[in-house]
Amino acid sequence: MPANTSGIETDTSGWTAGSNTTLSKSTRFYAGAASLGLTATAAGSVTATISARVAVVAGQEYTAYSYWANVVAAAGRSATIRVDWYAAVSGGTAISSVTSAASALPNATTWQTPPPILIGTAPIGAQYASVTVTCTGLSAGATVVTDVVSFGLPYGAAGNGISYNVQSLEVDGSGWSSHANVTAERSSALAYDGWYGLRLTSLAAGAVESRQVVRIPVTAGVEYVASAQVNAGTAGLDFEVQVLWYDAGGIGIGARFRQNWNLDAGVWTRCSLIGVAPPGAAEARIAWGPTATAAGQVWTVDSVILKPSPIPAGSIVGYNTQSMEVDASGWTAVSGCIISRTTETAWEGGASLRIDETGSSGMDATVSMSAPVPVVPRQAYQVTPRLKLGAGAAGRQFVTTYRWLNSADELIRATNSTWSLGTSTGTGWYTPPTSSVAPTGAASLVVSFRIASSIVGQPAFLDDVQIVPGGLAAIADPVPASYSASIALQGLTSGGYTYWGLWRQDGDGALVPIRGPQGDLSQVTIVGDTTVVEDYEAPLGVQVRYYLKTWTGGSYRAVLSDPVLIPEPVSTEIVLKDPGLPARQTTAVVSKGGQPTWTRRARQGVNPVRGRSRPIVISDIRTSREGSMTLVTETAEDLASMWWLLESGNILLIQWPSLWNERDVYVAVGDVAEAPVVEYAEYADRTWTVPLTEVDRPVGGATGSAGRTWATVLTDHVDGMDLLTSYTSWLGIYTGLEGT
Questions:
Q1: pLDDT in tens, 206-225
Q2: CA–CA separation, 354 and 344 (whole Å)
Q3: Contact at 8 Å (CB) between 61 and 161?
Q4: CA 54-58-59 angle, 5° bins
Q5: Which long-range contacts (CB under 8 A, 24 or more apart) does 39-43 make?
Q6: Per residue in 658-690, pLDDT tens?
Q7: Could you tell me which residues are beta bridge partners of residue 259?
């Protein structure tokens, strides 16, 4: 509801008086500085309704309550709150309504607690709701006040399968049974959420059991978490959370799941159980199974949850490893620290992993998953932990290590990703996501975290460690048919960055930008999560890697692909490519003795000087290499491919066999001579004399793809008319660029 309607801090405009009622702004208050005064014109009841209906969603559960007080102490007065459901924002008849139980005001001027509370589900067709408050038993001229009038979604974990009243008992205790050796009742003596809790009192020493009355739907094979806040009246008492599973016919299946907790007296403890619904499970319910050592022992239960574990889609770790809700068994202290489960702080749920540095041997605090999790080779995985540090100096680092294992649990490779955390004040949580690709042969993964420059006496906390397929990655594959590499990029939108860039890392470590349709892909605006890039200029026969970076300003993330090797042709052949038109490429045999003899001409003027024996030489840097090579083609197809490559006059890339120890070179080709090998016209063998001048790597983009075929055209266009209306030339069809 609007703040002024709920708190009446400004005026009473959010309310409309009912019969026998005059409204006023009162200086009494439960919260804030004012409340709504309701004065009776004559003896009887006073009532008020919100002036404007509020929007609701059919099928959604809602709760409403309001606090009341007498202006002058009086006995015999009680208050209720009512919600009416409507199909329209104004007018019409209520579809239905729900009213709270009457709650007596104290014979004093103190505020009534607990207040009248209702819980209701918006019926089919409901789009709006109206809230009405009522107080009975007033004499003429008497005034009562109400404050913090509230209507909205009930408090509780998202996705909880348990209704709010069963979860928090704010209306009644009908959702729980006294199953064995116990009295189970709703009580306002102690509560964690709201005003009521479930009070369990043992009848005698021994096992105690209270069950949820209504079973809720579940799905076999899905992991669920059951939890509650529990307060024990006696120190050292055990408390057991249980889940019972049933088939579609309501028949119990399998053993009930159990998780035991030892409680301190007078302290709320979040007690959880995590487990996967067994085969055939269609329904489930929670049971409480504490053990009493005597009659009259008390446990109070509140804020009950039974829902699918809040793990992301595709998660490869269980909820307890992710969020430590039951224990710290999913993690191991590797070096420099001790670990424990704690409830003193948490990002998600009620617990986290506390990491205390020991300072032993000067080693950084390092923790690791206790057991590997299965992975799929060549799949990228993203690890997203939540990390909270104590106060420390700037420059601290957080290192995530991926240890990839084969089916025999042998280490294939370990990769590290480092985040610089800056200055930690100890008051907030970091989210340092990283990603890596499972190498070929990987069967499982173990993730570890290292806090560089961790500080003794300043604990760190780890929570909500999510490991899912995906994340920022570059997965490279060779394309032997076109002597190129295909690089699949994913996770570009993760992190909310603005630009991405892709570079090739050759053997010497230098980074070379990859050519794209509009030019080098050194700064591309992110418009989607995935794309595929083709690299036609990568060296052949040697391993290269691809460096992918996403960034905004000075903030960035980067990953490096696994090495990829593009096969080369036989050692007598070279590959010739047009970098700007990758479809134009061919191979050719270099004839014996046809390898270029490179010349680098001097740029100099020799000036004889009168009276001196030595001239004055004025020189500049030498020209680039120049030479001529002799090629051989054998078939008519080879002949056509060579002319198809040469006729554009573009700069070409020559890639030599690795055994020749020649570096790949960009060249301008001069006048080409084509000659028959023998003097018989029916033979297609030709020799080619190709003059070359070495040039710089050409600028500009790459048009089309060497992998484009008629099958691609047929896939992209429904019929011939669609094809003809998409392109203006055969070059457009060949390259795939519409309008070419």
A1: 999 999 999 999 999 999 99
A2: 9
A3: no
A4: 130
A5: 39/141, 39/142, 39/143, 40/138, 40/139, 40/140, 40/141, 40/142, 40/143, 41/140, 42/140, 43/138, 43/139, 43/140
A6: 888 889 999 999 999 999 988 777 788 999 999
A7: 241
